[in-house]
Design goal:
about 30% helix, 4 helices, 6-stranded mixed beta sheet, about 35% strand, Aminopeptidase, globular, alpha+beta
């Protein structure tokens, strides 16, 4: 991801989330040197991922696929790519937060070996107030233990 990608990234964010990140959040992540990646079709950005790495762990901060391109394995490939980057940078574990209502994301993360390690009450904005976030984690072994898919 680069600064010039932000219009496309924001189009995906706005299509996918009722409460998307702002362009400035992405700019800050780029400025800090976080691994920020985009997935592209032949003509447009269709997904993105952002993570931080430090202190022997990585944190998936944002993983998003445009709704028109879901259920094709792109989210799984992007997640695995980010986990590989973290592993290669020396991270021994990975963390992320997800809305309790995001069943498809939860299925993806659990299928990739993430387990619930905590809950953040009222963490996310929601149409009716706030929604809890689940904190998920998994170990990053030297060789990826990806299930066959």
């Amino acid at each position: 991801m680069q600064e010039q990608d932000l219009d496309g990234v924001m189009a995906v964010e706005r299509a996918a989330y009722p409460f998307p990140w702002t362009p400035q959040i992405f700019r800050d992540c780029l400025y800090c040197g976080y691994p920020c990646w985009v997935a592209e079709s032949e003509t447009e950005i269709i997904g993105h991922g952002v993570m931080s790495i430090g202190g022997g762990e990585c944190q998936i901060l944002n993983l998003c696929v445009h709704p028109d391109h879901r259920r094709q394995g792109l989210g799984r490939r992007m997640l695995r790519h980010l986990l590989d980057l973290g592993r290669n940078a020396g991270a021994a574990s990975a963390f992320l937060e997800v809305r309790v209502s995001n069943r498809s994301a939860l299925a993806l993360y659990r299928g990739e070996g993430f387990n619930e390690v905590g809950r953040r009450p009222r963490y996310y904005p929601a149409a009716q107030g706030r929604e809890d976030g689940l904190v998920l984690a998994r170990e990053l072994l030297p060789t990826p233990p990806y299930p066959a898919r």
